UniProtKB/TrEMBL annotation, chains A, B, C, D, E, F:
Protein name as annotated: Ribonuclease PH
Domain of life: Bacteria
Quaternary organization: Homohexameric ring arranged as a trimer of dimers.
GO molecular function, a single term: tRNA binding
Biological processes per GO annotation: rRNA 3'-end processing; rRNA catabolic process; tRNA processing
Keyword terms of this UniProt record: Nucleotidyltransferase, RNA-binding, rRNA processing, Transferase, tRNA processing, tRNA-binding
Presence of the UniProt keyword Nucleus in the record: no
Top EC class of this enzyme: transferase
Function, as annotated: Phosphorolytic 3'-5' exoribonuclease that plays an important role in tRNA 3'-end maturation. Removes nucleotide residues following the 3'-CCA terminus of tRNAs; can also add nucleotides to the ends of RNA molecules by using nucleoside diphosphates as substrates, but this may not be physiologically important. Probably plays a role in initiation of 16S rRNA degradation (leading to ribosome degradation) during starvation.
């Protein structure tokens, strides 16, 4: 993959394989068992993890727990104000799609038997949006999840390891012909292909979602995007570990 | 009014007429024309003001503007997680009641002819709740409103004064027999009477909402609550002015 | 308070402290345990009390009862037809606000332990609106509540006193500079300040809701409104007692 | 048809072909252009007619008017309290079915070209239910419609005859083996067949809806029900004419 | 009844008392306990019967079963595309009315005690509409119901006869002055009177729904329509029996 | 990739890279401008294309057309009956996600300027589900889209080429450790990784959605799935061409 910013400079001046600065702040609010503010540059998402001693009906009596997610954007997290979904009376398709993705991604690192009959709900609320809110949400929700599980362990409510490995997510895309990592809004709204890559820290893929916004993408472009995603994920695992004091 | 903390100490150790520390942070997020994080102690509300060059149908062609508000709580802003209103598919009665109150309060300080055919929407989203979210929201939304109007003025879109005076709100209540100012959650959930007082900086009342949660309140108790409210409002006007650099 | 109708005559010709004729008709319909048509002049509200041997989930097993209210306006109770809320698919903010107020007001005179695990639902449906529907609803719902409790007592289902004292509500406002009692629609739609006052027959305040529609109101205006409210409430308690044959 | 009350007395003691007393009270409320309280015995329905100078989108610009209906039951119009449809967030199938029926029935006597581009909405709200609410609603809505059309004529807004003939509705059914006219609740909830018959005063059928609740009905039973319906409709046309002072 | 096609030929060229070709195909899909595609000419409805070992709350513990129906039209089953009801967020009045009719019709041939505490849901989905979808749905749902009951019997879950007799439905109407059987879309959208007739194979009427679209219909016209309906129903019972191999 | 069915036989007995029989039937219903029944084995989806001479608000006046999709499953298309989304009052997250995917996929082969200000809506309704409904829907919707565009061309409404290339979709997954093509329900509900691959006939990727249901997937597994997807897509393009008589 060519990294020649001279040819096609990114609006932010970043190198093609350069992520935005990542900031992870734990205990951002005080009531939740886990509460993390995560920033990918100007994108800021508040991720809280809430523990409830109940499971959905389809799991009752099976001795297994559940992990689920909800996602929302504050009406003015975006450049122009969006309708409040609570006022419109329903969550849009994009919201449902993202929160389903976050839930699946986090369940991939949880041993639900070890969790026991409890539900952990990950609320990911975007305070400010500048592209990549779903990848920031997954990456931050992981840290909130770990905090919530630690809270349970400190109270003696769980014994075995609940969180197995780590999960992080990042986007990559083809912007003006060049594969780039971690698209911001300026790039996202003007790119040919956008891919969200969810990985675990063993190098495995949890979820891949690639969409050709303009022309279809070729296999070699896909390979370049996957390589960028792997690089980004490694940096995010480091940021998570640092935030968690590991 | 007796101020003898020995007799009935408040859970927080505050004096009966002592407000929680108030913090007002402008430009908290970057997209909105006005964006204010206001904290009344541990209560934190993000208030954004968004300008739209349209008015509701009932005002079209009349040359007047509109100011409206929406209110929401993040699901885990509270001690135990509340349902997300967007997921439930409707806003609850408490939410609607509060956002109607915020809208009326702010319209009381706006010259809608001077605003012209524009709508300013005040989104008040509670990041963390510890009692008094609606009074913090009104007080913070005022600052966001001023910022949005200044943004319009700097672009030359308005000429005359739009914001006339200031508006702030505070609660007072009877806690264990004693009138106290600015109830936090521990007091609010265990008080006899709770009153929300919205004032302007000319000393006039914009809105009074007093509710006897336990026994009915007497006229002398009402007088004591109003005196506390006037004191609190004076302090809030000072905090607003300081935040606005006046 | 000056009572000089010469200076600012009310549209109806009433004196400033004069209520509209109040009429309370019990057993207006036959199925409900309590059924009251209350008229404040041309405002007519049908208040029914329905007994159900269940309580909401949050009260189950606690040995306490519940009192709640619902409010509605027939589509053509108003000057121009309003949308039917059932057809629009949701109750508006004003409706929810009013029915929450009615419920709180009536719970203030009920000993919920004495009621036992039962719910009394007060349905207040406006047949004809001419201002003051919420105050008429509260005043009439009290009578319906008493009838429903008597129905329970006659069947031997309750032993102790359930209704403690009486509750009534009236509005007062500043109309063309003058404090007046019990605003009708012509006054309500053109007044500066509107206050709803809910009292008990011990002279205590249950709820105060005052809103400056035009300019903010001063403390002396507030005092005048409270004095009017106290006078009106006394007359309403007398009307309730007469209707109940006390 | 045998009319031998000795064999199978009706719960009310009526003869098989005897309707309940019908009462029609015009100008029951004051805001609507037509407002009629109609009682079929203990069934009481308030029918208002509201004139609006608009038509639905599918009729715009065609020079024709529209007549439509909405139906509702007050929550405690029934023996046990029913959920308020506005609170549940939707109208039930029975409600929609009835209001569609009322609308069709009344349109059958209206010359929509003569009405011009106006909509008349007939709101039929049941204050007290004892069987036959839909037939009472149709019969009363006709009178409200005539009053609304007269209101338009008195203002000079229409010239030609808008209401052509009269419309009324009545039920008939097989109760304990015997065809009876105008079923009350006690009969309706325990009958084998229930038929609603909408007729015009020329003896024509506008709508027939017959349902076998128990065993299927034979052709001779159907003939008996139709004969009862014709008798009932004649009496209702007389009652309408008397109420209208014709 | 005159059958003179010369006078008023039907758009399809059919004789006045001639039904469209009826086709009934069992086991059209594989998962449902009963699955029938029924065609009345170009009208095609897929009727599935699903068995569930639960009953609605109002029947629990009574030892009786339930039969219910749901109806839908694929968005492009019609000449111009209709909105998808799932996307609009509610079923329209016509849909609710039809599915209530189908449910009542089928319950009329079911011994609910013999069914035991089970629910059979009849889903009637219109793949292609050309008039008469509700009558086709009832006629086809009967066959699907029989198949589902046979499925239960083959598994030994029921002993007694559950389906008592047969049910079928057909429409008749006055088209250009002439009574005709089984209206197709071209006739239905241009007829004076439309009647849906649900019968059992004992010659009894289960449901009659006749509507005057244009002028009111006279008694002799009604008699002609009933005679046509009886003829059509006989043919449909034959088609059902043939499809069921009886 | 090893194709040794001996090692891990698929439930259907298919080879790992063997698709189910694909059947494409055009003109399946008569009203739609394009109407295609597509079967991937036992999965059957009816795809209709409807032309409307309007575009959504965000495109008005821009001279461009729009292509959108809606997806639904008949309640008993599945092994056990699913709730009807129209009756529940909303489309679920899975439905919204799939219909957004179908819409994006088909827009990728459409020149929206050439289409002009028209909307083509692709309704994909699952008559019978056995895994792979979304891939069958995309593949079939393409054929329906081509038919609708040809319908427009035959009427002289469009001149230039609207459909550019072809689009098809297929799934691949890791079933019991082995990469397999075109998962049926038995495999889908028990696989480790499931990937939906949307391609164009130039070999480019339009959309990739891969989800690790069990353990994360490795890069070499991803490569195997992509190879299977490319093989499947080639076969689908051939089937589309054959159906279209190319």
């Amino acid at each position: 993959m060519s990294q020649t910013p001279v040819v096609s400079p990114r609006p932010s001046g970043r190198l093609p394989d350069q992520m935005r600065p990542v900031r992870i702040e734990r205990a951002f609010t005080r009531h939740a068992e886990g509460s993390v503010l995560i920033c990918f540059g100007e994108t800021r998402v508040l991720c809280t993890a809430s523990v409830d001693n109940k499971v959905p009906a389809f799991l009752r009596g099976k001795g297994e727990g559940w992990v689920t997610a909800e996602y929302g954007m504050l009406p003015r997290s975006t450049h122009t104000r969006s309708d409040r979904e609570a006022a419109r009376g329903k969550q849009g398709g994009r919201t449902l799609e993202i929160q389903r993705l976050i839930g699946r991604a986090l369940r991939a690192c949880v041993d639900r038997s070890a969790l026991g009959e409890r539900t952990i709900t990950l609320d990911c609320d975007v305070l400010q949006a500048d592209g990549g809110t779903r990848t920031a949400a997954i990456t931050g929700a992981y840290v909130a999840l770990v905090d919530a599980v630690n809270w349970l362990r400190q109270r003696g409510e769980i014994k075995r390891e609940v969180v197995v490995g780590a999960v992080a997510a990042v986007s990559a895309g083809i912007y003006r012909g060049q594969p780039v990592l971690d698209l911001d809004y300026a790039e996202d709204s003007d790119c040919d292909t956008d891919m969200n890559i969810v990985m675990n820290d063993g190098g495995g893929f949890i979820e891949l979602q690639g969409t050709a916004e303009g022309h279809a993408f070729r296999r070699d472009e896909l390979d370049a995007l996957l390589a960028l995603g792997e690089k980004g994920a490694r940096e995010l695992f480091a940021a998570q570990n640092e935030a968690l004091g590991r």
